[in-house]
Specification:
The chain is an alpha/beta fold and 252 residues long. It has helices at residues 26-38, 49-58, 75-82, 100-108, 121-138, 141-145, 175-186, 194-202, 210-224, and strands spanning 18-22, 42-46, 63-67, 91-95, 113-116, 149-151, 155-158, 163-166, 169-170, 192-193, 234-237, 241-244. It folds into 2 domains: 18-138, Response regulator (Rossmann fold), CATH 3.40.50.2300; 146-244, Arc Repressor Mutant, subunit A. The protein is built from 9 helices and 12 strands. The longest helix has 18 residues, at 121-138.
Length: 252
Amino acid sequence: MTTSGGSSVPAAAERRRKVLVVEDDPHIAHVISTNLRDQSYDVAMAVTGPDALAHVQSHHVELIVLDVMLPGLDGFEVCEQIRRRPDNIPVLMLTARTAELDRLLGLALGADDYLAKPFGVRELLARVKALFRRADALTSPSARAAPPVVATRSFAIDVQRHTVLLNGRPVELTGKEFDLLLEFARNPGRAYTRSQLLDLVWGYGHQMYGHTVNSHINRLRAKIEVDAARPQYVQTVRGVGYRFVDTDEPAG
């Protein structure tokens, strides 16, 4: 589970991205941290939930690789507390559990991605890179130059404050739910495939992870639709995927 040394060395001027690895298994922690450092990430370690929260409180962290099964507080509890912070740190959850319910719980609590053990190092590094690429896109000059508030007939989405008003009422969304709604609202009427949404919102477009989009769409609908079974805003396009509609016309 190692990568070849020296095959991907960043330019000298490129800053080292700060990653916190939260894992209580010494072997797995060593493998993850070694390979991340080989890719020139600046890696810090924590072995308990409380240690992870304390580190985030006192240090600048740009991404967290978070195991679920931890002493003190489990990864779900840690992720939930991290999501109460305003900085929206990307979280990649790791777990030996494979139950769909566990995966959905992690995503519902605000995890940006989810990787089940055992996993390949290349897959882990690809997910980390994708999360950083997505975070960079959200803070790029073009993103900063975009209107700070995206407004539709029913929604006012404040990009910088990460807040959403639906007909003047606040809606509490997780990070990925917010990103999905923002992508839709910026392109009303566009039909997206699941792969396109994975690429645009998560930073990768593998067909095998299409269920991730479905679960997030379902939770987004539960929060913004009057009747999630008959959605007005996020509509299903048969044979394609989804589109956002917010006009004076009733949903078809």
